[in-house]
Amino acid sequence: MAQTPNPVFGFAKKNCYGCHNKANPSGDVDLTSMKLESDFDEHREVWERVVSKIKSGEMPPSSLPRPALADRDAVTKYLEAEFARQDRTAKPDPGKVTARRLNKAEYTNTLRDLLGVDIQPAESFPNDEAAYGFDNIADALSLSPVLLEKYLYAAERAVRTAVFGPEKLKPAGVHYPSAVRIPVLPKDLLNYDKTGLSTHHAAHVMHRFPVDGEYSFRLVLNGHRPQGSDPVNPALFIDGKLVKSWIEEGEDLEGRIVEARTMVKAGEHLVSASYLNLYEGLPPKYGGPKPSDPKEVPTLSSPKGKLTEKDIELLRKYGTKLKTDRAEVRVDNRYESIDVGGPFTQTMGPNVASAQRIFACGLQTDACAGTIVRTFVRRAYRRPVTAAEVDPYVKLYALARKSGDSFKEGVATALQGVLVSPHFLFRVEQDRPSIAGKNYAPVSDYELASRLSYFLWSSMPDETLLRLAGQKALRQPLALKAQVTRMLRDEKARSLVENFAGQWLQYKNVDVIKPDVEKFPDFDESLRYSMKRETALFLENLIRQDGSVLDVLDAKHSYLNERLGRFYGVPGVVGHEFRRVDMSGSKRGGGILAQASVLTTSSYSTRTSPVLRGKWILENLLHAPPPPPPPAVPGLDEAKGDGSLSLRQQMEEHRKNPACASCHSRMDPLGFGLENFDAIGKWRDLDGKVAIDPTGTLPGNRKFAGPIELKGLLAQDREAYVKGLTEKLLTYALGRGLERADKPAVNAIAAKVPAGQYRFSALIEEIVKSLPFQMRRAGDAS
Amino acid sequence: MNFVTGKSVSRRTLLRGAGVVIGLPFLDAMQPALAAPRATKQARRLAVVYVPNGMTMKDWTPAGEGLEFNRILKPLEKYREDITLVSGLSNLVSDKAKGGAHAKASGSFLSGAIPKYTAGADVHAGTTFDQLAAQQFAAETRVSSLQLGCEDSRMIGNCDTGSSCAYTNTLSWKNPDTPMAVEVNPRSVFERLFGTMDPSLDDATRARRALYKNSILDLTRESTQAMVKGLGSLDKRKLDEYLTAIREVETGIAKAENDPQLPTGEKPSGIPFSYAAYVKLMFDLQAIAFQADLTRVSTMMLGREGSVRTYPEIGVPDPHHPLTHHRGHPDFIEKVAKINCFHVELFSHFVAKLKNTQDGDGSLLDHSLVLYGGALSEGNGHSVHDLPLLLAGHAGGLRGGRRVMAPLQSPATNLFLSMLDRIGVEKESFGDSTGRIDLNA
Q1: CA of B215: which chain A residue's CA is closest?
Q2: 3-state SS track over A592-639
Q3: What is the enclosing helix (H) or strand (E) of B239?
């Protein structure tokens, strides 16, 4: 059985049993009860942890005598060989996925592709339950009565929009209050974004326009300009393009309204309210460009007391544009709110795309209705259907006709029924008899087509995939590869970025973070939007333009707009649009660990947390999640730090305790290496009054100074990273948590990635070819 | 009906006849609906309607000691018998608090608790008295309370000199740490009350759609049962969940079938452009919510405290708040008075609605207490004394048609305590109260 004598138990007795025994099972591990060779298999997860802890140097703890390197190596090599043997000889088992309900994103995309409508049907659905870090896990997704009600309503709205055209919307307003905070005037009033879009004085909102049409925009101003300024220029932009600008005079802008109307296409667009040439027209003493003429400035005779006749006349002329109680000096012109109203004109009737998709037959006869329904059911069920399956829906059409409804109403009723069928809402894979000599069988070609499309598009298979499935040609390696390439190039692969990468790296949490207003006055909605977009674009380009997966760790580029360029201190980025920027000259470097989105979501609202950041790296990049902290650990006493100790120095305290150090010696250095980034991702050299010390040591005595060197070292751990990414992507692709039997598949997939230059497509192709993706365990084993 | 209530139908007032019209714009008078006699004790309703930035008090306060309808109150004169004008109350805690004057006033108004001075997430004030009522009635209504607003619903950020928007943009606090955000979109209010039903359908169409829906559920159930037969045990469990959901939805529909009359008209699609139409629509939604006993407690702000709304429709194109710092300028004062009067005119629409809605053996107004007014009196000096407040309604035996003079410097919470008495909520004391006000004096 064993190739060499087993050194494990002798080593364990000398170095481990003292703390890991029955009476005192430290870390919940009792090695004295695992003294048999068979325990390496039966308690594999425990022994795997033993290997990783010995390799990283965490165990035995540094306070105890250190075993010789040769002894440690002998043990880890023996165990790893044993694990490999187990995997080699294990019966291949592709596992089984339970019936999988479409989640919110999948439902929305599927209706979009099935009906050609984009009405956000799942907006009001309850959130999908998540497991293993993803919201598309079959076992976790449930179907409550509340959700069923919503499915019924969504089906009605979607089908009626497709058949009859969009809901006739009366013009009405949507109100967006603006949370804008103006910091102190910058020192340099000459170099700034003249459109104002990247400044704090602008307000931005993403608004979904339901249909093509004419919409109105009402901007309510607020804030002030100093006494004696030239008029300001409020401006409206849509998607970064100027729509209209105005001229408004006076010191007090509170409550002023400017309005515009323009045609907008359906969909989500960025509506921005800004001030053009922000620092022009100020009184000369402010030192800005193009100062205002010193002139007869309207002022009240005094800030208190009774108004004189002259004052009354002045106020008659200028109204509330003059401050009644002081000479204004502030430059905090901003916005109170943006109101979007409309649509005022609306294209009525179903759009051509929807009509083509649904009305597979041109006449308004019963026979045609049958054809329409049959075609729809086949597409909705994602496979060929029998007459018995189609019949009940044709009966619905007949019922509607009998009740006096029109042909279109009849068809709409039938289609609504299809959209709550379990065959539509669930992806169910049939149990089949196993292949000779194995305990599994291939999933059908149609089931494979659905697996592919929901993996890469979060949506239903298109006609090409279904045709290949029908011809039984989908499984052939060349065909499969060609499909993966095609699918990644398609727009719909955006879903892979949003849903997989969004959950893997959790950068979408940027939407809900609330950095402390006092400590981080620089943070506003414009920054929030920009940091999210940076990461989204970065990942989108990686995944859809087939970049190297290692770029996530340590790329030399990023995607910035002017707001981020200023925030990061990267010169030369002018304008509100995003563009690719070379980061190799910057202290920050590139990659996900230099991006404000991740740096902010892994911080607290008032300060950074090296522990959170270290944990984030371990969990998401290094495939080595730390165990949860022991109970009753007191938090860091923020009040105690009087500014003379840096955060790092304060935390050295709790690493003095060896029980804590075992995990924190791994986590903390990673976080300390990023301490140059504050809690909203801005570069800093000081923490309070103390200089940042960005040095650290990774296990294996690898030293680094600063984030760029840290990332370089992490990129050396690429094997662990690729394996971790493989596990996550495979979990997402399958829709179930991984089990022990999946290890050989994971190892095989990860091993092939370097040969494909670490390209994302290489990883995807290997997953799609793998056993768990193509096969399903036979029989009714749970 | 597209929601599953789980509540016994007999507690809902049945609306018969032509149903209730709630459409846009609100120019037609509401058709009175006949209500079935209530099986249980008469429900009492509580509403608070708030106006910001104070008033020109010389146009509010009667010249003499009795009930007189000065300029601002003129629109309510025809409801004299239903009005109890309360003079002399103060918001005493406001003077003790730190922060922006507007935020302090509205942030403490309905609770009598000192709001914490902060623009951050650590806001802290007190449970407001409307929420005490909401908690008591919650078991009997589908929606425990409504918080409506006509301007700015955000709860974070600096809205008044370093004081959080949570203090200026809402009146109701569930507990000292939980301000309740207002809903400003009438469509959302409608959907919260009535679910997703489309009120513009005629009865025949509605009946057909209900028939189709039942057929769809039927065939879905059969289809699922057939599918389940061929599944392994794990999959079976998942699909069984679906069967359970279908059954529950079908049961819910059957229950709701006893209550077929729902509002007809058009569902609001968003915020109307005309302020008057907007406010009236929000009032109508509250009236319907009371009438159908969907809730018994509501608060509504006609503008956030510190509001900068302009009123071009009444000849006031300037923003409200700066106008109130008039320093004696006669034009500014005149404009503020116009705004105050306009608000009361809109409020009188609410009073009329409640008065014309039958409720058991009387009208909704007979069984309600509606507080109208604000937490500031003279806006120019941010005064919090002799607040402009009145009650409409007769719940709990309130006689109406009189003016009550509270001893000077009485806290407004004395009034709120008296109001709680009359709607059946027992409380010893509340906030900074020092006693009660006799409203029938």
Answers
A1: A396
A2: HHHCHHHHHHCCCCCCCCHHHHHHHHHHHCCCCCCCCCCCCCCCCCCC
A3: helix B233-256
Pairing state of beta strands B389-393 and A702-705?
unpaired
List of chain B residues whose C-beta atoms are within 8 Å of the C-beta of residue A316: 331
Question: B266 contacts in A (CB within 8 Å)?
Answer: 170
CB-based contact, A301 to chain B, within 8 Å: no
pTM: 0.79
Q: With an 8 Å Cβ cutoff, are B235 and A98 in contact? A: yes
**CB contact at 8 A, B378 and B57:** yes
ipTM over 0.90: no
Predicted confidence (pLDDT) per residue in A450-489, tens digit: 999 999 999 999 999 999 999 999 999 999 999 999 999 9
**Distance from B260 to chain A by nearest Cα, in Å?**
18
Beta-carbon pairs below 8 A across chains A and B: 193
Between the alpha carbon of residue B352 and those of residues A370, B81, B348, the distances in Å are 55, 13, 6
Phi and psi torsions of A662, nearest 5°: -55, -35
B329 contacts A307? CB cut-off 8 A: yes
- Interval B200-245: pLDDT, tens: 788 788 889 889 999 999 999 999 999 998 888 888 988 998 999 9
Determine whether the interchain pair B325/A518 forms a contact, defined as Cβ–Cβ distance below 8 Å. Answer: no
Gap between the Cα atoms of A700 and A544, Å rounded: 36
Q: What average pLDDT does range A67-82 have in this prediction?
A: 89
Residue in A closest to B184 by C-alpha: A175
- Contact present, A178 and A338 (Cβ < 8 Å): yes
Spell out the SS3 assignment of B413-436: HHHHHHHHHHCCCCCCCCCCCCCC
In sequence order, the 6+-apart residues with CB closer than 8 A to the CB of A87 are: A743, A744, A747
Which single residue is written with the structure tokens 């061929």?
B230
- A404 CB within 8 Å of a chain B CB: yes
**Residues of chain A contacting residue B269, judged by C-beta atoms under 8 Å apart:** 169-172
Highest mean pLDDT range out of A23-27, A219-223, A278-282, B68-72?
B68-72
Radius of gyration of chain B (CA): 24
CB contact under 8 A, A316 and B248: no
A396 and B216 within 8 Å at the Cβ level: the answer is yes
Residue A304, pLDDT score: 79
| Closest CB to A392 among B2, B119, B219 | B219
Phi then psi for residue A272, to 5 deg, are -125, 140
Residues with Cβ within 8 Å of residue A268, at least 6 apart in sequence: A206, A207, A208, A209
Distance in angstroms (rounded) separating the CA atoms of residues A414 and A706 = 63
| DSSP run (H or E) holding B225 | helix B203-229
Element (H, E) at A233: strand A233-238
Q: Give the Cβ contact number of residue B241 at 10 Å.
A: 16
CA A666/CA A761 separation, integer angstroms: 32
Query: Could you tell me if A200 and A181 are in contact, meaning their C-beta atoms sit under 8 angstroms apart?
Result: yes
Please give the full DSSP string across B54-84, using - where no structure is assigned.
-B-GGGTS-SSSS----GGGGGGGGGGGGEE
Task: Closest CB to A169: pick one of B235, B269, B273.
Answer: B269
Residues of B in Cβ contact (< 8 Å) with A422: 220, 223-224, 227, 239, 242
Nearest to residue A335, comparing CAs of A424, A258, A279? Answer: A258
For residue B335, give how far its alpha carbon lies from the nearest alpha carbon of chain A (Å).
11
Beta strand pairing status for A579-582 and A557-560? Answer: antiparallel
Question: What pLDDT score was predicted for residue A782?
Answer: 42
User: Is residue A96 less than 8 Å (CB to CB) from chain B?
Assistant: yes
DSSP string covering A470-510: HTT-TTSHHHHHHHHHHHHHSGGGHHIIIIIIHHHS-GGGG
Contact B212 A256 (CB under 8 A): no
